[in-house]
Amino acid sequence: MKRFAWMIACVMVLCAATNVYAQWTIELTREATFLLRYDGATVMRCKYIAWGPNWKAASIDTAINPNQGERWAFSGDSKGLNLDIHGHINWTEGQMRFAYDLVASKASAGNIGGGASFDLRLDRQVFGDNVAKPELTDTGFTWTPKPGQTVSVSFEGLDRKPYFEKNRLDEIRAFFIPSNIEAGRRTAGMTVALPAGTTRVDGVSKLYARPDDSWHANTIDWSVSPIDLSYLNHKPAGSKGFVKANGDRLVYGDGSEARFWGANVQAYALFDATNEAIEQQAKRIASLGFNLVRIHHHDSAEWSPNVFVKDADNTRELDEKSLDRIDYWVKCLKDNGVYVWLDLHVGRPFRPGDKIEAFDELKPGKTGRQGKGMSYINLSITDRMKSFADAYLKRTNKYTSTRYVDEPAVMGVLITNENDITNHFGNDFLPDKNNPIHQHWFEEIRDKLVRERGLDGATAWKTWEAGASKIVLNQIEYDWNVDFIKHLRTIGVKVPIATTNTWGNNPLFSLPALTAGDVIDAHAYGQTESLSSNPKYDDMSSHWIAAAQVSGKPLVVTEWNTEYPQRDRFTQPLFIAATAAFQGWDAPMIYGYQQAPLVRQSKIETWGISSDPAHVALMPTAALIFRRGDVKRAGSTVVFAPGDALLNKSISPENSPALRTISERHRLAIGLPKTALLPWLQGVDRGDVADPDAIVGGMGETSVTSDTQQLTRDWRVGRFTIDTPMTQAVMGWVSDKPIKLADVTFTIRTPKATAAITSLDGQPIARSKQLLLTVAAQAGNIGKPQAIRAEPVVGTLEIAGTFSVQAIRPNGSLYPAKVTTGAIPFGSEPTHWYLLSRR
């Protein structure tokens, strides 16, 4: 792999918006909120938020109705707060007005409350240097990012004054849902006053076809995969020896490259499952092209059963029936050549009988108290976590007769899920959190490090700020990780270990502590219309994953998804597979395969793709793209190494054009700094790019093409293409014109869709005797009664040669063959797959 060594010629710094015809636009969302854009960049995003007592999520679900002139009605609810929500929106020149009617079916007290949250772009990428900061008022806020161009947001009926979340000027919250809710009706209003000349634009939701009962039902068979890719798996899993890290790659015990395309199986699906269902789904998982499953939410309080004895006063007693279900899952997956990833700690609910020190300071949960964050300084929590690891990993699976520490079908182990103190839980040690014992323990360690490392004691306690506090927090987390890994190796764990994850928008300063592990683990979730985001201004989930690729370390992704009900989630499976192959990620795992009890689903679930046509239909092609290496790894690796700024500033894909633009054109690797402040850190002397604000070359005005020339994303249109000898595909907004790739041309009438042609016989498309055509678009729970329905994708594939074309039924059987030359129509059959046999 050649290094990127020509930065100077190809790096520009974005100082201001590049379009001289910059203008303001406002767009209503389907959720009855709004997006505000300047020069095409999203600079303000409004969303609704709410919590019950103790920050228990109480989501606000609203939907806008078709408009009547410049007036829109909307309705929804917050079930967690027993609220029905109705209202209307009016648009007049320069102003958008929201009126809310909130009706509580019963009173409730002690809630956090809720209302509107605003994310603002305050960096210089869009507006230039010295962009003005927003100013709070008693009823809202004002913001003048360009002289003479003011945005003003004001409310009626607020419960409290607006505030900056965590003192961050880029996130403002305004609560009009009170903490103590009285039964009956309450009204509120929001007025958004905009700069002169602001235009209202229709949202892309108007371009989608509206769901109706004519959409195809039963396009997915939950019991089987119509395409059988299980031949890709070596059986049983583990037969090539234990997986290990080798530089920045994973390899099997025999030295061959290990590349995993995975999914999560979690919660109810683990335990509420018969032998027959597990056998069936393990086979289907392998047939869909997966060779890795993460066993997740095995210990979480939110779901019952879990691995703990339900009625015990402690979590030291493990439930044999639950362990039996996990063991059978592992046995069946292994038989089908599917490896497993084991988490040790996800959502364990500590109970009084666990005898945790300072137990009352742990956050209360559904059936116990959570130890996240506290685990790094509370030795009793660490001890209980080690004891669980011993019991969980040293036991023998009765179906395989192998202890888990000796099981080569285990691909990797995660110590603790979404549990870092460098960005998320470090604030729990502050005086205002009322955790005096944990605060004392933390301050003892902090003050010792301040003395030893010569840190600024005046800022080292400010856990929410970059700088000295991140040195302290990384050191605490790293030391804990090293100790825990040593324990796992002592009990016999042989496979790669991840510590926790980079997740929830962690900046780069969270990476150093993670390097104690053999691999770095990342989580990232996508958003609707992400293919339309301009990387000069806006981030997307792939940028966050790429920014976790530490130089010299393998990267696994135990969670990625663009989940239901996001309507264009069908654009993501092939996009992620292609990006993962291009970047050289080692093990992407979608979250999740199934979370509900392991039975056929009558509705698409948010955290399970097993019955979702928008995901499942594309998984065989995605598996081929990634596992077969249809998309080549990037020709150049660009090391982003900002030096000490990595620890002293909050650098992330949210605010760094360099991270975004590098990862779309080249392979991105993060070079950590060499610093005496963290003497164990394996940093780099220098990298290729150091400026977070740099835009790396090869960026067109509206599109970017990978340095391999195989991947192109046109953000103006919102389209991504894959053009390789073995797979050619298009996804996004596709109906504007025929889309010509190397060997095929797609002409698609469905406005937004994914269509792909891939070789099934290992030969290039131009010579292949057997090809798979896959199409997918919107899917949802539609009609009354609701049924899972998929939007037909209608179009034509132009390809040289004469073909016998057979649509494939969901159960894998074939429709009668049709012989076609040159142009192959698709979309009339209720299917996502067509088998093309060249004559």
Explained architecture:
It is a single chain. The protein has 839 residues and is an alpha+beta fold. The chain is built from 15 helices and 49 strands. Strands 37, 38, 39, 40, 41, 42, 43, 44, 47, 48 and 49 form an eleven-stranded antiparallel beta sheet that branches. Strands 29-28-23-22-21-33-32-31-30 form a nine-stranded parallel beta sheet. Helix 4 runs parallel beside helix 5, helix 7 packs across helix 8 and helix 11 runs parallel beside helix 13. The longest helix is centred in the middle third of the chain and has 23 residues, at 468-490. It starts with a strand and ends with a strand. The relative contact order is 0.10.
Radius of gyration, whole Å: 27 Å
Q: Total helix count?
A: 15
**What's the mean pLDDT score?**
94
Estimate what percentage of residues fall within beta strands: 25-35%
Q: Describe the sheet with the most strands.
A: 11 strands, antiparallel
Sequence stretches where pLDDT stays below 50 over 5 or more residues: 1-22
How much helicity do the residues have?
10-25%
Give the end-to-end Cα distance, rounded to a whole number of Å.
40 Å
* Overall 3D shape: globular
Q: Find the structural class using helix and strand composition.
A: alpha+beta
Give the oligomer, counting copies of the same chain as homo and different chains as hetero: single chain
SS elements, strand count: 49
Blueprint (SSEs and pairs):
Layout: E1 2-3, H1 7-10, E2 11-13, E3 24-28, E4 34-38, E5 41-51, E6 61-64, E7 71-78, E8 83-92, E9 95-104, E10 113-120, H2 124-127, E11 135-136, E12 140-146, E13 149-156, E14 163-164, E15 171-177, E16 184-193, E17 199-201, E18 216-217, E19 244-246, E20 249-251, E21 262-266, H3 268-271, H4 275-287, E22 292-296, H5 320-335, E23 339-343, E24 363-364, E25 369-370, H6 379-393, E26 396-397, E27 402-403, E28 410-414, H7 436-453, H8 468-490, E29 497-498, E30 501-502, H9 511-514, E31 520-525, H10 541-546, E32 555-561, H11 572-583, E33 587-594, H12 613-616, H13 619-627, E34 636-640, H14 645-648, H15 657-665, E35 667-670, E36 694-696, E37 703-705, E38 711-714, E39 719-723, E40 727-733, E41 739-740, E42 744-748, E43 752-759, E44 770-776, E45 779-782, E46 787-790, E47 795-808, E48 818-826, E49 833-838
Parallel strand pairs: 1-34, 3-17, 21-22, 21-33, 22-23, 23-28, 28-29, 30-31, 31-32, 32-33, 34-35
Antiparallel strand pairs: 2-36, 3-4, 4-5, 5-10, 6-7, 7-8, 8-9, 9-16, 10-15, 11-12, 12-13, 13-16, 14-15, 18-46, 19-20, 24-25, 26-27, 37-38, 38-39, 39-40, 40-43, 41-42, 42-47, 43-44, 44-49, 45-46, 47-48, 47-49
Helix pairs in contact: 4-5, 7-8, 11-13
